[in-house]
Design a protein that fits this description.
This protein has 182 residues and is mainly α. It is elongated.
């Protein structure tokens, strides 16, 4: 990649559209998954507090299923945090770069992409460094959408996790119904 200036292209437009789509989808799914889990937890608490007698074996099964659903919700939340943080920080970086270029149009003439890529890896742990190196290599090779595809995969994985969470909560609800109406 050397010291070439980056040019806007169709690939960048596709990448930005992919990032925006995955960001909006991620935020929506994350909000939905959190609210459904919180609502279900509230209902579960209400049933435990107000239904007597309780079949503790069925309640134990429902609680275990709820905990597993919570784990799936936490994993999807982690993916959401990655997508949201990277997108929002890249937006801020783009604004700052635009401001710098506006002040000095030749700023990238002496910019070293090699130093940039090395420096960006430094604070990360080994597994994260490998991922960053992989995507930096993609950028160097001209694949500007590798990151966007990663976020689309994160969004798709998040979608699957939310569906699993919902299925588990439906099973948990069935368990709770059998507690209320034995």
């Amino acid at each position: 990649m050397g010291n070439k200036k980056l040019q806007f292209s169709n690939e960048q437009l596709i990448g930005q559209a992919s990032l925006l789509g995955s960001l909006k989808g991620t935020k929506t799914l994350d909000t939905f998954a959190g609210w459904i889990l919180a609502g279900f937890g509230t209902a579960l608490t209400f049933i435990i507090a107000n239904v007597t007698p309780i079949d503790f074996n069925k309640l134990k099964s429902a609680l275990i299923i709820f905990i597993v659903a919570t784990v799936f919700c936490a994993i999807q939340k982690y993916l959401a945090i990655i997508v949201i943080c990277v997108f929002e920080s890249s937006e801020e970086v783009n604004k700052r770069i635009s401001s710098l270029v506006e002040k000095n149009p030749n700023i990238f003439d002496t910019f070293s992409w090699e130093k940039y890529f090395k420096e960006i890896e430094r604070p990360y742990w080994p597994i994260s460094k490998q991922i960053i190196r992989f995507f930096n290599k993609k950028l160097i090779d001209g694949d500007l959408n590798a990151g966007a595809r990663l976020f689309i995969h994160c969004f798709q994985t998040q979608s699957i996790l939310v569906v699993i969470e919902i299925v588990l909560l439906i099973i948990c609800a069935w368990q709770l119904i059998t507690i209320i109406n034995p």
